[in-house]
Amino acid sequence: MLSLILFILLAYAWLLKPAQVVHGSGFLYKDIFLLAGQSNMAGRGGVVDEKWDRLVPPEIKPKPSILRFSAKLRWEEAAEPLHADIDVNKTCGVGPGLAFANVIRDKDSSIGVVGLVPCAVGGTNIHEWARGTHLYNQLVRRAMASLNEGGAIRAILWYQGESDTLSKSDAQSYKENLEKFIQNLLSDLNSPMIPIIQVALASGQGPFIETVREAQLGTDLPNVRCVDAKGLPLEVDNLHLTTPAQLTLGEMLADAFLNYFQGSIPITSNAPRR
Ligand SMILES: *[C@@H]1O[C@H](CO)[C@@H](O)[C@H](O)[C@H]1NC(C)=O
Fold first, then answer.
1. Which of 32, 85, 145, 243 would be a feasible disulfide site paired with 115, CB 3.0-4.6 Å?
2. Which CATH architecture has domain 28-268?
3. Could you give the CA distance from residue 99 to residue 195 in angstroms, rounded to a whole number?
4. 17 Cα–ligand 1 center, Å
């Protein structure tokens, strides 16, 4: 009798063990990160005059342990441009996502397979991300679908606001709109404690950059942290981060995630990283 019970338990354990399944089919636990916002999250590193130079630094070359969730909701090995099938009307280049994934894996051995869920679309302002919009719904839908083959959403990386620097009223209402967006999103993901790491603007499309930056650096929500991209090198358009700048930003996001959210108690303030 005892050996029968033991056998059943062992059989269960075998059935439930995280299988070493080839990605794309079946269960594979992933540390999942959502990437959302506008062009600098989608990635324009190496893009000049709507042409990408195709230069991918060795640090972010594809590897089997870092996956991306395609527009068709399939896991595949992540390669730049990470947002090519999401931000489809623009020429995509290098963004911060792959650098982020590589650095968290290098610095924290408890991170296993990383699953990146690209959702950023260039030229979008905060109103276009409000609850119920196409971008918002797509973000929630892709986030939910990304969990189907195993894994947990570990954080949301958000870099947006350049388009909200064009009008004074957009810039002035940015803080309220951003906080509403974050609260709605966490509630619709049924996960109030998912960390959010946002990027304070390095550039903008209009004159009200400082107003938006103040809103970002002053976001007063639990589990929201901010890294500051100000001063990172920009392409000749003076709007988009270069490829080296995106590698630096990826590392800053990774350090923020590891410092504030890995194995630590929940954070309730939003001090800038530097
Ligand atoms: C691309 O452009 C089409 C046509 O204007 C539009 O319907 C679609 O929403 C755009 N997609 C993205 C991701 O910008």
1. 32
2. 3-Layer(aba) Sandwich (3.40)
3. 19
4. 42
